[in-house]
Amino acid sequence: MLDIVLVEPEIPHNTGAIARTCAVTGARLHLVKPLGFDISDKAVKRCGLDYWHLVDLSVYENLDEYFAKRGDSGLYLATTKAPRAYHEADFPARRRRGCPHGCVRSIASAVSASP
Questions:
Q1: What is the pTM for the complete model shown?
Q2: Are 54 and 23 in contact (CB under 8 A)?
Q3: Which of 54, 57, 105, 114 makes an SS bond possible with 82, Cβ 3.0 to 4.6 Å?
Q4: Distance, CA of 105 to CA of 27 (rounded, Å)
Q5: How far apart are CA 10 and CA 15, in angstroms?
Q6: How far apart (Å, rounded) are the C-alpha atoms in residues 56 and 34?
Q7: How many Cβ atoms are within 10 Å of 50's Cβ, its own excluded?
Q8: DSSP string for residues in 51-65
Q9: Cβ atoms of 110 and 86 closer than 8 Å
Q10: How far apart are CA 110 and CA 84, in angstroms?
């Protein structure tokens, strides 16, 4: 089972798209606060997220709580702030929590960062 963890997500539309993908694929979605938007029942219904009840969702107060409950083994980390693009990473060797070399940029940021 795939787990997707969003740490301090700020863009509701991106999170909604990821949640929709989780609903369709059965992946679990983990959100680490602070969130840049409201995920209350009222807010979700107002946004028309009629699939939200299909998402296996967990919310954590901070990253420490996430690691305390879920551990840190088998992670693949993707960020816009990593030193290398995802296609340059050796994923199995790059799973160390808290290590900047254990992170990779997403393709969108890798493309936009290209000269």
A1: 0.73
A2: yes
A3: 105
A4: 21
A5: 8
A6: 19
A7: 10
A8: TGGGSEEEEESSHHH
A9: yes
A10: 8
